[in-house]
Design brief:
Elements (H helix, E strand, L loop, with lengths): L7 H6 L6 E10 L9 E6 L6 E2 L3 H6 L7 E7 L2 E6 L5 E7 L5 E7 L2 E7 L4 E7 L3 E6 L4 E4 L13 E5 L2 E6 L2 E6 L4 E7 L7 E4 L5 E5 L3 E6 L5 E2 L3 E2 L5 E7 L2 E6 L2 E6 L11 E2 L15 E3 L6 E5 L7 E6 L6 E7 L5 E11 L5 E2 L7 E3 L3 E2 L4 E4 L2 E4 L7 E2 L3 E11 L2 E11 L6 E3 L3 E4 L8 E4 L3 E4 L12 E10 L5 E11 L12 E4 L6 E6 L4 E7 L4 E8 L3 E5 L6 E8 L4 E8 L1
Parallel strand pairs: 31-37, 39-43
Antiparallel strand pairs: 1-2, 1-29, 2-3, 4-5, 5-6, 6-7, 8-9, 9-10, 10-11, 12-13, 13-14, 14-15, 16-17, 17-18, 18-19, 18-20, 21-22, 22-23, 23-24, 25-26, 26-27, 27-28, 30-33, 32-35, 33-34, 36-37, 38-40, 40-41, 42-43, 44-45, 45-48, 46-47, 46-49, 49-50
Length: 574
């Protein structure tokens, strides 16, 4: 997670999204004078539910805690406690993380702070009177630092190890101790007005020293050259820490970061805590720690020196609060050790990957695909259309979102009609000047399509013609079909009226007169047995007479036939 810090804005623009962040926090309770409640309390959120411990030293050793637990350090598999009560003090070495006691030193001096050199040795600064003592963590011995020049004049609150030497801040000077000979070999004047913070960078080649308002660097590779003071633009600095080429420190309840490679002065606050407590109890002692693996940090408050103590664990990348809480039983936090765990989370995993190509000839409505998420099935959503009816190729982006994040997939949709229309064209006969009816075709997408042609669709002469019809479905599919057209231009016979006939007198003795409304009507006389008695010929002018005088009396039938019909009249001969 180590990102070079340039500005808060740059951090915001380059925020890395992590999954769940859990942590283990050791928070040191100083305890009140005369009350052996000082101890290390542990909050662990890597388990569910999260746990808060009681005083770990007390639990591990079935004893009371510390009467003013002044400082606490971890080195390798051991932890170092120093107790600074009103009377006899203690230096206690325990196993870590079990906190089982391994050795205890008692001292009439007042242990003030711890400086770790390695897994086998550390230094403790005393006050009243001031002294530096080497603590052998293997043989459990205490050896005062040899100080031929009387550099160690008081106690030190800030000690760091770099390039083979221990550097202890006393007043405005640094006392340099050769850890091989356990001897104070140099006093370095920083030029500052006291020392509120002392840190060393990763490669141990540069010390950074800070007072209330200014910051200087000491180049250990070039004879201990001290830089000119840099005024950072704040006051009352405290809890100075180094992380990833940056100097972190607090002024009041605001956090500031000085970027070594690209300082932007004056500094502006990048985070402001909302923890309770006044200016003295906020960030009390050394209660600010940065996880060197992640850059996440914790800040605590002694809460006006009453229990419980409060703390905030903060994401070092975007300065969001991971958790803000209090530690039950922890009175007056003055030190912290933080380890955070960024558990990667997996956004929803698509059920089918890649998504299949969707093809259709006319139209399609898409079904949303699915993914497997934290709580089960996650249905995809999209801002693209899910219905397509126009020919073409389209890309649809599906999104799956759950509490672990968002994943996306793309899907290709092709609408491509390759089916020709099916015409229904039949031969037809028409008269002159009659317009040929437009035939139709059935299409899979367009439905019914009317044909088009550039040929004539009406004719003035008798004959047989061919019309070529074209059917286009609008999707690139066109089919043609020929139609045979027979044209009849012959003159039609005039339509005749219905045949009308009268015959009189009826009955008759001799002559019958016949009258019709048509010409060319043939006449027959038939007896009652159906025998043709006489073919009387045609009526040309609508009138004719028949002589029945030679026939016997009886019933006869006069049959008259025109080109379109036949009519019969019953006749009686007297």
């Amino acid at each position: 997670m180590k990102n070079k810090f340039t500005s808060f804005l740059a951090c915001l623009l380059a925020v890395t999204t992590f999954g769940q962040i859990t942590y283990e926090l050791e928070i040191v309770a100083e305890g009140n004078f005369g009350s052996p409640t000082g101890d290390v309390f542990v909050r662990n959120t890597t388990v569910s539910p999260a746990t808060n411990s009681g005083g770990r030293y007390q639990e591990a050793n079935s004893t009371t805690g510390f009467d003013v637990l002044q400082d606490y350090k971890i080195t390798g598999s051991k932890a170092i406690f120093i107790e600074k009560p009103a009377g006899t003090g203690r230096i206690v070495i325990t196993d870590h993380p079990s906190f089982t006691e391994l050795h205890t030193f008692t001292t009439s001096n007042a242990p003030q702070s711890i400086g770790v050199v390695s897994n086998t040795k550390a230094y403790v600064s005393y006050g009243n009177p001031g002294d530096l003592v080497l603590v052998d963590l293997v043989n459990y011995t205490l050896t005062p630092v040899t100080d031929p020049s009387d550099y160690v004049s008081s106690y030190s609150n800030h000690m760091v190890y770099a390039a083979g030497h221990l550097y202890a801040a006393i007043g405005s000077n640094l006392i340099k101790v050769d850890t091989l000979t356990n001897t104070a070999v140099e006093q370095i004047a920083t030029g500052l007005q006291g020392i509120k913070g002392l840190v060393v960078n990763d490669d141990e080649s540069t010390l950074w020293v800070m007072d209330n308002t200014d910051l200087v660097s000491i180049d250990l590779q070039n004879g201990g050259t001290i830089s000119a003071p840099v005024t950072v633009g704040t006051s009352s600095s405290s809890n100075v820490r180094y992380y990833d080429e940056n100097i972190y420190y607090w002024s009041g309840t605001s956090l500031y970061i000085y970027n070594i490679a690209a300082p932007e002065l004056p500094l502006t606050s990048l985070y402001t805590s909302s923890l309770p407590g006044n200016a003295w109890s906020f960030g009390y002692g050394k209660s600010f720690a940065i996880d060197p693996a992640t850059g996440d940090f914790v800040i605590a408050t002694a809460n006006n020196y009453t229990a419980p103590g409060y703390f905030e664990v903060v994401n070092g990348t975007d300065f969001s609060i991971i958790e803000s809480d209090n530690m039950p039983g922890c009175a007056i936090p003055n030190n912290c050790v933080l380890k955070t765990y960024h558990t990667p989370t997996t956004p929803p995993t698509p059920t089918v990957d890649p998504l299949p190509l969707i093809t259709a000839e006319c139209s399609v409505t898409l079904d949303a695909p699915t993914a497997t998420g934290e709580g089960g099935t996650v249905t995809g959503t999209t801002t693209d259309p899910v219905e397509y009816s126009e020919q073409g190729t389209y890309t649809v982006t599906w999104t799956y979102t759950d509490e672990n994040g968002t994943s996306t997939q793309t899907q290709t949709v092709e609408i491509n009609d390759v089916t020709n229309p099916v015409p229904s064209v039949q031969p037809i006969s028409v008269s002159c000047n009659e317009t040929v009816a437009t035939p139709e075709a059935v299409d899979n997408c367009a439905g019914t399509i009317s044909g088009t042609t550039t040929d004539p669709v009406s004719y003035t002469e008798t004959g047989v013609y061919t019309i070529t019809w074209s059917f286009d479905d609008g999707n690139g599919n066109t089919v043609t079909q020929d139609q045979e057209v027979t044209v009849n231009c012959l003159a039609a016979l005039p339509e005749q009226e219905e045949l009308s006939i009268t015959a009189y007198p009826n009955p008759t003795r001799s002559v019958v007169y016949i009258s019709t409304n048509q010409s060319h009507v043939s006449v027959q006389l038939v007896d009652a047995l159906g025998k043709v008695v006489s073919n009387a010929g045609l009526i040309y002018n609508g009138k004719k007479q028949l002589d029945l005088s030679h026939l016997e009396s009886g019933v006869y039938f006069i049959s008259l036939s025109s080109p379109t019909e036949t009519r019969v009249i019953r006749m009686i001969k007297e």
